[in-house]
Design brief:
With 177 residues, this protein is an alpha+beta fold. The protein has one domain: Aminopeptidase. It contains four helices and seven strands, in the order E-H-H-E-E-E-H-E-H-E-E. This is N-acetyltransferase domain-containing protein. Pfam families: Acetyltransf_1.
Amino acid sequence: MPRENIEVRPAAITEQRPLFRMLELYQYDLSDIWNQELDNNGEYGYALERYWAAADCYPFIALVNGHYAGFALVDGATKIASSGYWMDQFFVLKKYRRASLGRAIALKVFSALPGYWEVGQMTQNVLAQRFWRSVIAEHCGNYQEHTLTSGWWQGVVQCFNSELHQSMPSPSVDQCK
């Protein structure tokens, strides 16, 4: 995004409303593969409060020229290993897609939270899988990929260490959740 002022930072608690509204757009974008229903208020809804209340939750907001443009929600609910960072939700407004904003957000978030990471995508979201494989490879070179086919969350997961910038060994069976 040449000549654009991109800012990626932790979201302030006062930004819950804009973040919630972007989450609604995100959930709508995925409504063909994420089986959700609108509530009585005509919203998908999302429990955002935990991102400011829990110690292992990290809300990030992205702005372009001072305008909201996307977000990353990170928590500690890893799916493969017993601890680390999980990219819980990630979204870029359509206006900024294919202009490297998603890549910039991801790389800044990975750098802000060094350590073991897991990034998952729904099985049907092939475009997201392609995006994450490319971004993670750029960030650290190598990663391990797993496909989860049982449990409450199923999909493709890339595992890597953002601090060491090297491939992670496959977790042993007793590390899996």
